[in-house]
Design a protein that fits this description.
The complex is a heterodimer. By secondary structure, chain A is α/β, with parallel strands linked by helices. Chain A has 2 domains: about 30-190, 3-Layer(aba) Sandwich (Rossmann fold), CATH 3.40.50.1980; about 190-310, Rossmann fold (3-Layer(aba) Sandwich), CATH 3.40.50. Chain A is built from 10 helices and 8 strands. Chain A has helices at about 5-15, 35-45, 70-75, 95-100, 150-165, 170-195, 210-215, 235-250, 260-270, 290-310; strands at about 30-35, 50-55, 80-85, 110-115, 200-205, 220-225, 250-255, 275. Chain A has a 4-stranded parallel β-sheet with strand order 2-1-3-4, covered by helices on one side. Chain A has a 4-stranded parallel β-sheet with strand order 6-5-7-8, with helices on both faces. The radius of gyration of chain A is 23 Å and the shape is globular. Chain B has a domain at about 145-395: Porin. Chain B has 3 helices and 18 strands. The termini of chain B are far apart. The chains are: A alpha/beta, B alpha+beta. At the A-B interface, helix 1, helix 3 and helix 4 of A face helix 2, strand 6, strand 7, strand 8 and strand 9 of B.
Chain lengths: ~300, ~400
């Protein structure tokens, strides 16, 4: 072995032993959630027995998140990783998992929780699908958290996962789940009462982010600003949409905070309606600070706008 | 007839003889019976409705579970397959490195899957005009202790920033001059070997140190191994920090060392010369999260020093580029790059270039790009070209480049 070889061997050894491994045992479970919604539900169940980090912000398009190395650091320290699944994070989670070197949270490991496994999924495509249909999700619509029933199911799955990993606190997590469940049930009565008058009203949304939400509150989505999922608005589609909205008397366009409102604004002006930006996630609006607040915010804003356009 | 009349009379008498209270009682009983029947009917309807609702709920839950589990399919173990096509066109004058007017320059096939609970496997095959080439093919061990990530196989080495990127992840139709002059061109420093990368704990700073040992023949002659022990070594340190939620800074330092081909006389390595490379790179990104699909900016620079031993004395050559890319709208990207690079084997000869790039992306899966490029060669006539590129990808959705 020449001196140079020894030098390189020494560098390699130094690199691999440099500094100690990450700080030792902590009592609190370290939880990383890919979105703020899952993070909020994890906080509801975990309380002060967990620390929660959410990766994507609620006002950012969850399909297009940069796999930043700072996220790799977060995932590398996680005891539990909660993901939306249904291929929502397909473009950014794999490099984070790979780079994290954390065997506890790899798919299939005990610390990996796919929140979509026991929820109600809509828009599962039947038959042949191709990308000519736009950016379709073969496993169904991944925006399923926008339905209180699914929120409850996700919370239950989180309760199960936390209890499995930290059995000493199982009773605590169950108590917190019951408390959340009761608050959610009470809130649902409130939301149902607010939305009751608008059952069956037709609306338009920008992207297909809202099927669970709209179905839950009895609204009918008759069209989209996007001609196909993930494809930006085109003049011909916009023209058709305007005609269809006029024909059916549809006056409300719901838009996610991360889309440009230029096209929806112009459509709304042509049909004499209005554009409403709602929060598709926790953090999607300043007031939407937790899971229940997201619905409070959306339901109140939606009811206000529907009252205005329908006169009910 | 008489008989009937008699029965009628008897019945009538009987009825008339029944005391009033008894008649009222019978009516009451009938009413009670009616009420009971009504109550039963109501109970029955309610219970039936409840049962029907329960069955519907169970069916829905069953449907949800069935769809959640997905159909059993042996093909789920097939690797994710994707193909990226790269069609290139060129017009104008370039006497040093004339690329064809039209060329299906490269079709890259990727095959990626998890091997077992301990590792994943990745293959990238490129089909070009010259044939098939294993661009990369490696196993990654993901379950090692001590925050290590090890790769073994044919890899693009970790020297610098763009040298490790596949063609379709670049923001230009070509590679910078420094890559061509000092790092072996399109292929880059790609070689068979072993790579170990470790996350170095440094608080909120992302710090990753990578050490690689490769066979020693890569980069189209940058390194060339003539004995089994003529290995090349690459070391890379990457530091990344979020400055704000929208802005981040990515810094890197690299070093590489190995034998070169300069000492060959009649296929015998008489000179035993070596090349040593040093590099630093910096990338500043800005992408406002709420407008992430419409707007972003990236500025990048890499500087490479090459020390190449050869007959007639060591050549110390410097090369660098500065680039900036800006997303104008959902589908439009514009960028520019300034290049300057001396030749590895002739430090006195430097090439200087400039490019302006415009990219249109109909969707995540396709893009067309135009690039105006001017290169002032140190020893030949200035090249003035327009490059055209069409890229498209089919198959599995790969991760976004970062």
């Amino acid at each position: 072995m020449t001196n140079r070889h020894r030098l390189f061997a020494a560098v390699l050894v130094t690199v691999s032993t440099l500094a100690s491994t990450t700080a030792g045992a902590q009592n609190r479970l370290s939880v990383v959630a890919t979105t703020e919604d899952l993070g909020s539900l994890a906080r509801e169940i975990g309380g002060d027995k967990v620390t929660v980090t959410a990766l994507a912000r609620g006002y950012q398009d969850p399909h297009f998140v940069d796999p930043k190395p700072s996220f790799i650091l977060a995932v590398s320290k996680a005891d539990v990783l909660i993901v939306v699944g249904r291929e929502l994070e397909l473009g950014w989670l794999p490099p984070l998992l790979n780079g994290s070197r954390n065997s506890k949270v790899q798919p299939g490991a005990k610390g990996y929780l796919d929140a979509s496994l026991n929820v109600r999924i809509l828009d599962i495509p039947a038959g042949q699908i191709t990308r000519a249909m736009g950016d379709v999700h073969p496993l169904g619509n991944p925006h399923y958290w926008l339905e209180p029933g699914n929120g409850r199911r996700i919370a239950e799955a989180i309760r199960g996962k936390f209890s499995e990993l930290s059995s000493a606190d199982a009773a605590y997590f169950t108590q917190r789940y019951k408390d959340f469940d009761a608050r959610l049930a009470a809130a649902e009565q409130r939301w149902d009462a607010t939305m009751a008058a608008y059952k069956g009203t037709r609306i338009v949304t920008y992207h297909r982010s809202w099927p669970n939400f709209m179905e839950r509150f009895g609204l009918v989505v008759m069209g989209y600003v996007e001609p196909k999922p993930g494809i930006p608005p085109s003049p011909s589609h916009t023209l058709e949409l305007v005609q269809e909205m006029k024909a059916q008397g549809v006056k409300l366009i719901v838009v996610e905070p991360y889309f440009d409102t230029k096209t929806p604004d112009s459509v709304a002006a042509q049909v004499g309606g209005r554009v409403l930006v709602l929060a598709p996630s926790v953090g999607g609006a300043k007031e939407a600070t937790d899971y229940i607040q997201v619905f409070d915010y959306n339901v109140n804003r939606l009811a206000g706008a529907l009252k205005q356009v329908t006169g009910k | 007839m008489r008989m009937r009349v008699t029965v009628g009379v008897v019945l009538g008498t009987l009825l008339l003889c029944v005391p009033r209270p008894v008649a009222a009682q019978a009516v009451d009983q009938v009413q009670v019976l009616q009420q009971q029947i009504e109550q039963l009917r109501k109970d029955f309807t309610e219970r039936l409705a409840a049962l029907e609702a329960e069955i519907a709920a169970l069916n829905a839950a069953q449907a949800a579970l069935t769809t959640a589990a997905g159909p059993p399919n042996a093909k789920v173990f097939n690797p994710d397959i994707a193909v990226v096509g790269n069609f290139l066109g060129a017009a104008g004058r370039n006497v040093v490195n004339p690329s064809p007017a039209l060329e299906m320059a490269e079709s890259e096939v990727s095959l990626q899957a998890v091997v077992d609970p301990y590792a994943r496997g990745d293959f990238f095959l490129s089909f070009g005009q010259q044939g098939v080439n294993l661009e990369e093919g490696f196993i990654t061990f993901t379950e090692l202790p001590g925050k290590l990530l090890a790769k073994a196989g044919k890899i693009r080495t970790a020297f610098g920033k763009v040298d490790g990127l596949h063609t379709h992840a670049l923001t230009w139709a070509d590679r910078p001059l420094v890559t061509r002059n000092l790092l072996g061109g399109d292929e880059g420093l790609s070689d068979a070997g072993v790579s170990v990368a470790r996350l170095v704990p440094a608080g909120p700073l992302f710090l990753e140190a990578t050490g690689q040992v490769v066979r020693g023949s890569s980069g189209d002659g940058v390194f060339e191994s003539h004995q089994r022990s003529d290995l090349s070594y690459v070391g890379h340190l990457r530091a990344y920090q979020d400055l704000t939620e929208s802005t981040n800074l990515d810094l890197g330092a690299s070093v590489a060392h190995g034998h070169n081909a300069a000492g060959l006389v009649d296929d015998v390595d008489v000179g035993r010369f070596t090349t040593r490379l040093f590099g630093v790179d910096a990338t500043l990104r800005w992408r406002p999260l709420q407008r992430a699909i419409y707007q972003q900016f990236m500025a990048r620079s890499e500087i490479v020093w090459s020390q190449r031993g050869q007959f007639g004395g060591r050549q110390d050559s410097l090369g660098y580029y500065l680039s900036a890319d800006y997303q104008l709208a959902r589908r439009w990207f514009a960028g520019g790059r300034y290049d300057r690079a001396a030749r590895a084997d002739a430090a006195a000869v430097a090439d200087i270039g400039g490019s302006a790039v415009l990219t249109y992306r109909p969707s995540e899966f396709s893009q067309v790009r135009g690039q105006y490029r001017r290169i002032h060669f140190g020893d030949a006539a200035t090249a003035n070209e327009v490059l055209f590129q069409a890229q498209f990808s089919i198959g599995a959705h790969g991760a976004h480049a970062f």
